[in-house]
Specification:
The complex is a heterodimer of chains A (112) and B (144). Chain A contains four helices and seven strands. Chain A is globular, with a radius of gyration of 13 Å. Helices cover 40% and strands 26% of the residues of chain A. Classes of the chains: A alpha/beta (112), B alpha+beta (144).
C-alpha cells in the first residue's frame, strides 16, 4: 500500500495514495498498519481523500487492523468521498469507524 | 444514450485479483451511459467486484490461469450481468445473514460481507451450475 505520512504530535497522519482499496491490496493494508503498531504508533488519522473505491476486502482489512490495535489507541478517518462512505453505511461499518470531514476535526477527536 | 434495444459487452479476465479492476472500471464507464447515476454506477461496480472476488478466491481458489467471463447486457429496462467460471460450485444457497454488535469487538466481521453487499446493491441474483460451469446473474433495473 502506498501512503504518505507525517507526525502531528503523537498522532500519525497517514494519507493513503491508492485509488482502490480492494481484495488485491487488502493484505498490504493490514501489514502496513501492523508495522505501525509494532513501531509503537497507536493513534492514526487516515486521509481517505484519494480513495475512489473500496470493497468488502478493503473494509475487512481495516476491521482486522482495528482489532489488532485493540484498546492501545485508535484509528479515525477523514476526507472520505461520498461513494466510499456509502459502502461504510451499507455494511454498517460506520458504527465501528469514526469518520470526520477534515484533518483538523480528526485531530480534534484525539484531543477529546 | 437511448438503450431502446439490448446491447451487450463481453469481457474476459484471468482469475487474478489484480485483473478484477478492469471489469470494475469498464462498468464505471458504461453504467452512466445507460442512465445510472454516479452513485448507482458505483454500487453496481461494487456488487460485481464482490462476485468476482468470490470467483477468484473460492471457485478458483487463486488458481491464476483460469478464465472468468463477464457479459454485460443493457436492456431497455434492466442491466443484466452474467458471470461465468469453471471453478468449484458455489456452496449453499444465495441467502446471507450478516450481523454484528458494534460494541463487541469480537463480532466485527473481517470478511463474508460480499454476498450481503451483492443483495443490497442488486435487484435480483440467480445462480446455476450446468456442465461444470458456474453462472451467476446479477440484475439491476434501469431507473426510468
Amino acid at each position: 500500500m502506498r501512503f504518505r505520512e507525517r507526525k502531528v504530535g503523537e498522532i500519525l497522519v497517514l494519507e493513503i495514495l491508492e485509488r482502490r482499496l480492494d481484495a488485491k491490496n487488502a493484505v498490504a493494508i493490514k501489514s502496513g498498519f501492523l508495522k505501525k503498531f509494532d513501531a509503537g504508533v497507536f493513534h492514526i488519522a487516515i486521509d481517505m481523500g484519494s480513495v475512489t473505491f473500496i470493497d468488502s476486502s478493503g473494509l475487512g482489512a481495516f476491521v482486522t487492523s482495528m482489532k489488532l490495535l485493540g484498546d492501545r489507541g485508535s484509528m479515525v478517518f477523514f476526507g472520505v468521498r461520498p461513494a466510499v462512505a456509502d459502502v461504510f453505511r451499507l455494511t454498517r461499518m460506520d458504527r465501528i469507524f469514526k469518520m470526520h470531514q477534515s484533518e483538523p476535526e480528526a485531530l480534534e477527536a484525539f484531543a477529546g | 444514450m437511448n438503450f431502446d434495444a439490448p446491447r451487450s459487452v463481453a469481457l474476459e479476465i484471468p482469475s487474478r485479483l489484480d485483473c478484477i479492476e478492469f471489469i470494475g472500471e469498464s462498468l464505471r464507464v458504461l453504467c452512466p451511459l445507460a442512465g445510472f447515476s454516479e452513485a448507482e454506477s458505483y454500487r453496481i461496480e461494487l456488487g460485481v467486484i464482490e462476485a468476482l472476488n468470490n470467483v477468484v478466491e473460492h471457485a478458483y481458489e487463486f488458481q491464476p490461469d483460469a478464465s472468468v467471463q463477464v457479459r454485460l447486457t443493457f436492456q431497455p429496462d434492466q442491466l443484466l450481468i452474467e458471470i461465468r467460471d469453471e471453478g468449484k460450485p458455489r456452496p449453499g444457497n444465495l441467502s446471507n445473514t450478516f450481523t454484528f454488535d458494534s460494541e463487541v469487538v469480537d463480532t466485527w466481521p473481517e470478511g463474508g460481507m460480499g454476498l450481503f453487499i451483492m443483495h443490497e446493491v442488486m435487484d435480483r441474483i440467480t445462480y446455476e451450475r450446468t456442465d461444470g460451469v458456474n453462472r451467476l446473474t446479477l440484475i439491476k433495473s434501469i431507473p426510468w
